[in-house]
Amino acid sequence: MTQKELLYVEDAIGHESSIIEIIKESINSMDDDTLINFLENDLKKHKELKLKLTNLLEEKANE
């Protein structure tokens, strides 16, 4: 993986972290159970994607 690609993955991890925090804040400010459920599912997807990206970055760092 090139240095440029590694930087892209790092940026993507940061982006996912930001989205996760925004979703958490949104959930905490809502009363509608349907919206909260939707956002909790979305939050799970973003956490999984962040984990995949982090694992990819760790794999490349250990090569």
With helices defined by DSSP (H or I, 4 residues minimum), what is the helix count?
A: 2
Determine the strand fraction and express it as a percent band.
under 5%
Q: What is Rg?
A: 15 Å
Order of helices and strands: HH
What is the residue-mean pLDDT, rounded to a whole number?
Answer: 95
The biggest sheet, with number of strands, parallel, antiparallel or mixed sense and barrel status, is: none
The secondary-structure class comes to mainly alpha
Give the N-to-C terminal Cα separation.
10 Å
Any low-confidence stretches, pLDDT <50, length ≥5?
A: none
Helix content: over 70%
Tell me how many strands there are: 0
Global shape: elongated
Please describe what this structure looks like:
The chain has 63 residues and is mainly α. Helix content is 87%, strand content 0%. It is built from two helices and no strands. α1 packs antiparallel against α2. The radius of gyration is 15 Å and the shape is elongated. The model has no long low-confidence stretch (mean pLDDT 95).
List keywords for this structure.
63 residues; mainly alpha; 2 helices; 87% helix
Helix-strand layout with pairing:
Elements lengths: L2 H26 L4 H29 L2
Helix pairs in contact: 1-2
Could you provide a short overview of the structure?
The chain has 63 residues and is mainly alpha-helical. The protein is built from 2 helices and no strands.
